[in-house]
Design goal:
The complex is a heterodimer of chains A (337) and B (251).
Chain A (H helix, E strand, L loop, with lengths): L3 E6 L3 E4 L19 H10 L8 E5 L3 E5 L3 E7 L3 E4 L2 E2 L5 E4 L4 E5 L6 E6 L22 E2 L5 E3 L29 E8 L12 H4 L2 E3 L7 E5 L14 E2 L4 E3 L6 E4 L6 E2 L5 E3 L1 H8 L6 E6 L2 H29 L12 H4 L1
Parallel strand pairs in A: 13-21
Antiparallel strand pairs in A: 1-4, 1-12, 2-3, 2-11, 3-10, 4-9, 5-8, 5-10, 6-7, 6-9, 13-20, 14-15, 14-21, 15-18, 16-19, 17-18, 17-20
Chain B lengths: L8 E5 L4 E6 L4 H18 L4 E6 L3 E6 L6 H18 L8 E8 L7 H8 L3 H10 L2 E7 L4 E5 L14 E4 L3 E5 L2 E4 L4 E3 L2 E5 L20 E6 L5 H4 L20
Parallel strand pairs in B: 5-13
Antiparallel strand pairs in B: 1-2, 2-4, 3-4, 5-12, 6-7, 6-13, 7-10, 8-11, 9-10, 9-12
The chains are: A alpha+beta (337), B alpha+beta (251).
């Protein structure tokens, strides 16, 4: 039994995963879920491997209908989630019965939501990833009428008490809002900016509406290069902070072109990139300097929380019989002979 | 590519998930061989947590998963690779050769006349200089695995467009600074487009997605506009070489 899902209102949504880590060596950006923490959490809450394809919903309302019993989890920016018209919890596994509609409305205080379906969904692969790449024309942008097929079957999950939430796993949710604090480390070219590089830490920046998955453009006081030497094209890391023009600061995100010729003033940390993934136009951003060692430690702490969550989910799902291999008595007779 | 001596290098932190390794010898050819040799060594090791290496002209960006390996550990690993390179040399890869038919000027190369004017040479001379050279693919760049190459022997570096185009067609043959490139896919671009090849370069149903690798050799050949259609639908592919013929990459 495959759980089919019919997209009724796509908003701005794609099927993605954690990204094309093999892409950059071939000149393709890594892409993938911009808020990696929320995407991982959604898959873990749905009982999936972290890198399974899931739906990334950006800013606009989204609605889909389950044609089989499915189990979902919605994470990311705060929003109003209803299943079959009833309010349901974000950041928890949610049971959806066949025929019910899942509705995501009013994404606020952040920009992106993640919807994982137990058993994941079928998606094409390019260099080992389902993540869309708009430049080479790859990926699944959802449209009205798109059908997603779950890759494995899911038995119905019964709620023992009507309308009571089935799970309370209590994961720490990332804080979101209009004043964002983003950690950065010194970039490899910080010396080229001289003392003006400190402006990055004393000024407040405003997210421009021309921001996307390739990069965020930020208005504010701009550090200036002291040297004018031509820079050879170099591989630039995701998170690179550059000053390409006199109008805006550019922070490259996961859709960035792999090579560029601008000096890198600073690099946003892994946890900082998740914060920027949720930045809305008009939000205020302050940068805080940290070290690579501290940034690594912070990133590992946040991943450790997700590992704890995975253990809880495995325990609960095991008790409820979700995601278990079929028992011998469930197998068709022919398979046993 | 063989490598007798690796260039001296500097390693820079580039956030919690990447390192930038820069080769700093005065010889650009040696720098290029060093960073590409290092990238090949890293890729072949398949070290845990290593996502991959992006080599360009004189630098390589090493990307990794900071949960599995720290920047300090990766730095030690890169140093090991550099040591290995200086002893053993990079694996030798015979370059393959590609023939690229190009229609120059007109709607196919809207910036050809501008480039000729800026260089102070006739249009024909721009085409002659561009087709005369043998190009070594220096690296795969953005967008979509573009072959980045050292440019033709123009008198001056080519300035980038003041207003970058929102859309440059696939197959566009462009120059900027002292560099030359072919666009594998439709993308915005600020380079001067002097021609277009009718061959398709990118194929996302094949791996690798582009047929050339760093170190391979490209030659441009002028074709008349009326022959453009004859090549449409064909893919850029390496020439079959007569056995015994050896090609030397040119800087």
């Amino acid at each position: 039994m495959n759980g089919d899902i019919l997209i009724q209102q796509p908003g701005n949504s794609v099927v993605t995963d954690l990204g094309r880590t093999r892409g950059p060596r071939f000149g393709l950006p890594v892409n993938g879920a911009l808020d990696q923490y929320s995407a991982r959490a959604a898959n873990i809450l749905a009982g999936n491997p972290d890198n399974d394809p899931l739906v990334e919903i950006t800013a606009l309302d989204f609605r889909m209908k389950a044609t089989e019993d499915i189990l979902i989890a919605v994470t990311g920016a705060p929003l109003t989630l209803t299943v079959g018209g009833r309010p349901a919890s974000q950041w928890e596994p949610v049971s959806v019965r066949a025929g019910e509609t899942v509705s995501i409305r009013g994404i606020h205080s952040g920009l992106r939501a993640y919807l994982a379906i137990h058993g994941s969904v079928e998606a094409d692969n390019l260099l080992g990833s389902a993540a869309p790449d708009t430049v080479v024309g790859f990926g699944l942008q959802l449209r009205e009428g798109t059908t997603l097929r779950s890759r494995t079957s899911v038995g119905p999950v019964r709620q023992p008490y009507f309308d009571l939430p089935l799970f309370r796993l209590g994961l720490e949710r990332p804080s979101m809002g209009t004043d964002l604090l983003v950690d950065v480390t010194d970039g490899p070219d910080v010396a080229e900016f001289g003392e003006s590089g400190d402006l990055l830490f004393t000024s407040e920046y405003v997210v421009s509406g021309r921001s996307n998955h390739i990069g965020l453009r930020l208005g504010g006081e701009l550090p200036e290069r002291t040297s004018n030497s031509e820079v050879l094209s170099r591989g630039v890391p995701v998170g690179a902070v550059e000053v390409p023009s006199r109008e805006e600061l550019l922070v490259l995100h996961r859709g960035r072109g792999v090579t560029a010729g601008y000096p890198v003033l600073a690099v946003v940390t892994s946890t900082g990139l998740d914060v920027l993934a949720q930045a809305r136009p008009g939000d205020k951003v302050r940068f805080r300097k940290t070290t690579v060692a501290e940034a690594t430690a912070a990133h590992r702490r946040s991943r450790a929380q997700l590992e704890t969550l995975r253990e809880s989910v495995n325990t609960v799902f095991g008790l409820l019989g979700i995601g278990c291999r079929p028992q011998w008595q469930d197998l068709p007779v022919a398979a046993c002979s | 590519m063989s490598l007798s001596t690796a260039a001296p290098t500097e390693i820079y932190e580039s956030g919690d998930s990447a390192l930038r390794v820069v080769a700093i010898s005065g010889a650009s050819e040696q720098n290029w061989r060093t960073v590409h040799g290092l990238a090949a060594w890293l890729e072949s090791c398949g070290a845990e947590g290593l996502h991959g290496a992006v080599p360009t002209y004189d630098s390589v960006l090493v990307e990794f998963d900071p949960v599995l390996v720290s920047a300090r550990q990766m730095r030690a690993f890169v140093k090991l690779g550099l040591l290995e390179l200086s002893h053993a040399g990079a694996p030798a890869n015979a370059p393959r050769e590609f023939d690229v038919p190009v229609v120059y000027g007109g709607e196919y190369g809207p910036d050809l006349e501008k480039v000729a004017e800026y260089q102070g040479i006739p249009v024909d001379e721009v085409v002659r200089l561009h087709t005369e050279k043998t190009y070594t693919v220096r690296c795969l760049g953005a967008p979509a695995g573009s072959p980045m190459m050292d440019g033709p022997a123009f008198p001056k570096p080519v300035p980038r467009l003041k207003d970058p185009r929102l859309s440059v067609p696939a197959g566009a043959v462009a120059v900027a600074g002292r560099q030359a490139v072919i666009a594998p896919a439709v993308a915005p671009g600020g380079w001067c487009v002097i021609g277009q090849t009718p061959l398709s370069v990118l194929n996302i149903r094949r791996e690798p997605l582009v047929p050339y690798k760093p170190g391979d050799i490209l030659r441009f050949r002028q074709i008349p506009a009326q022959e453009f259609g004859d090549f449409v639908g064909l893919e850029l592919a390496p020439l079959e070489l007569p056995s015994g013929l050896e090609l030397e990459p040119q800087p």
